[in-house]
Design goal:
globular; two-stranded parallel sheet; alpha/beta; binds pyridoxal-5'-phosphate; 13 strands
């Protein structure tokens, strides 16, 4: 079997063993979203509903088609847009509803996809955080007409950069296959650069070397040497970068086949550690995600709301606890000029709050060490009661 086919086969195991013909591989996850929108004929004058707490590359893909992203504020306890709020945002121009399983916490995807079906609107799941998790007994990514996934460094399993889609709607799938004829191929330079970075990650980056390599990585990122998640134009404008519509390279496929094998173990570790954090935070009366959300979630990141993020991040670095700051704005990582992406942040207070106060606890390293750290910075962490008061 060809490598591409066996990679799709591995992926389909986490999508109810669906037909590999419905899985499509791309250079990045955002490209998969763009392909879905183009294949659905979405363009000028159309509206696409999106949660107001996402990555900027999501509205970018929408804007590149000529359509308009219409944002919906999140519910503070799910970090997702609720069905009720989405319903209010539907107009006669709405062509697609995008729901997202933020941090792996899928929520209401069954009801939202049902709502879309009733209104004859396309449903798309941003499953970039949730691959491998389930919601009400079904795999994330299988409720909507289409779903897209990311295999970027920080996602459920990695190919360096990369992404794929699963198109359950047969008519749409035929159109995606047609659209994919326009894909360009990664240049040799891009492939070599990615291969080098994958090699470095695999051989040099361990728990022991992490903190020594952080300054080097930051320097390389600042100078655009690392193949980062987003290039300059993607975070400064809504203009489509050159060679955006690009397929997945062999380098990525090979790395994907290797890394997806580790996914069951990783999912188990992340889930166990998420449970440990929840139990601990509840005991300490600190904020934690709603228990009702847990089900069989993938838990890519463990969210915690803090009063002073900079302070907490600085103290964590001193104690060598690797915290994340995802998502650090309504359109991560954008901090200003949201109007470029058709967003007026005043309308989305819950997403703005989450963006200002969110940190992520590490799910693949020593939980006890992180617990100790949390105790030491307790004064900077919102209590569960404070969060409930704020959300009234
Ligand atoms: C990472 C991410 C994406 C995009 O994935 P890429 O593979 O980097 O294009 C989209 N949406 C969300 C919420 C993400 O976190």
């Amino acid at each position: 079997m060809k490598k591409t086919e066996s990679f799709k086969k591995e992926i389909s195991k986490y999508l109810n063993n669906s037909d590999p013909e419905k899985i499509h591989l791309y250079w990045k996850g955002r490209v998969a979203l763009y392909a879905i929108l183009k294949a659905a004929g979405i363009g000028r004058g159309d509206e696409v509903i999106v949660p107001a707490y996402t990555c900027v590359v999501v509205p970018n893909a929408i804007l590149y088609t000529g359509a308009i992203p219409v944002y919906v504020d999140i519910d503070p306890d799910t970090f997702n847009a609720s069905k009720q709020k989405i319903e209010k945002a539907i107009t006669k121009n709405t062509k697609a509803i995008l729901c997202q399983n933020t941090f792996g916490l899928s929520s209401q995807v069954d009801e939202i996809s049902e709502l879309a079906r009733e209104r004859d609107i396309l449903s798309i799941e941003d499953c970039t955080h949730g691959f491998g998790g389930k919601f009400r007994g079904k795999f994330n990514g299988t409720y909507c007409d289409a779903a897209f996934f990311s295999t970027q460094w920080n996602k459920p399993f990695s190919t360096g950069v990369g992404g794929f889609s699963y198109i359950s709607n047969a008519a749409l799938n035929a159109k995606v296959i047609e659209e994919n004829r326009n894909l360009c191929l990664p240049s040799l330079i891009k492939k070599i650069s990615l291969a080098i970075q994958l090699f470095i990650r695999k051989t040099l980056l361990t728990d022991r070397t992490y903190w020594t390599l952080v300054p080097l990585y930051r320097m390389l990122s600042r100078n655009n040497i690392v193949l980062g998640s987003s290039s300059g134009t993607e975070i400064s404008s809504a203009a489509m970068p050159e060679k955006y519509f690009m397929g997945m390279s062999k380098v990525q496929v090979k790395s994907g086949i290797r890394n997806i094998r580790r996914l069951p173990d990783l999912l188990q570790i992340r889930k166990n550690n998420a449970e440990k954090y929840t139990r601990f935070l509840r005991e300490q009366e600190l904020n934690h995600p709603a228990e009702a959300l847990f089900d069989d979630h993938a838990f890519l990141k463990y969210p915690l709301l803090v009063k002073d993020r900079l302070k907490v991040m600085a103290l964590a670095e001193k104690q060598k606890v690797s915290l994340g700051d995802w998502l650090n704005s309504p359109l991560h990582p954008i901090q200003e000029q949201f109007d470029i992406w058709n967003m007026n942040t005043i309308e989305f207070p819950k997403a703005v709050f989450a963006g200002q106060h969110m940190i992520n606890l590490p799910l693949e390293s020593d939980v006890d060490k992180t617990k100790k750290f949390i105790i030491s910075v307790q004064e900077y962490i919102y209590s569960q009661q404070e969060i409930e008061e704020l959300n009234k």
